[in-house]
Amino acid sequence: LPSIPEDCRSNYHLFFIILPTAEQRDQVLNEIRDAGVKAVFHYVPLHNSPKGLELIGELTLPVTEDLSARLIRMPFYHGLTTEQQDFCIRIIIESVTKNARKLCLSITQS
């Protein structure tokens, strides 16, 4: 979950979660979308975008690329009701829990 340092303030323009792996991100994203949550992957890193490639050529930024592959942007807007928030939270917890169990099983079986 997002963490804001004590000496900073948030502009509250988005809310995101970061999953341990890109595979888990994809699984969780598909499941919460199937449940009706309008979540998206956040972005293509600018250096990998068509314009970024045109302006600077190929560039490797491993931390940016890793976070981009694991991040889900959640619904976050002024009109989001408490009931909708609770629904999103419940669906995310269910999906992350289920996928964490799958990940643990695959690790122990390898």
Structural description of this entry:
It is a single chain. With 110 residues, this protein is mainly alpha-helical. It is built from four helices and three strands; from the N terminus they run βαβααβα. The longest helix is centred in the C-terminal third of the chain and has 28 residues, at 82-109. It is globular and about 45 Å long. The model has no long low-confidence stretch (mean pLDDT 87).
Mean pLDDT: 87
Low-confidence stretches: none
Shape, principal axes of CA atoms: globular
Structural class: mainly alpha
Radius of gyration: 16 Å
- Biggest sheet record: 3 strands, antiparallel
- Straight-line distance between termini: 29 Å
Observed structural traits:
110 residues; mainly alpha; three-stranded antiparallel sheet; 4 helices
Layout of secondary structure:
Elements: E1 15-18, H1 22-34, E2 40-41, H2 50-56, H3 62-70, E3 71-74, H4 82-109
Antiparallel strand pairs: 1-3, 2-3
In short:
This protein is mainly alpha-helical and 110 residues long. Helix content is 52%, strand content 9%. The longest helix is centred in the last third of the chain and has 28 residues, at 82-109.
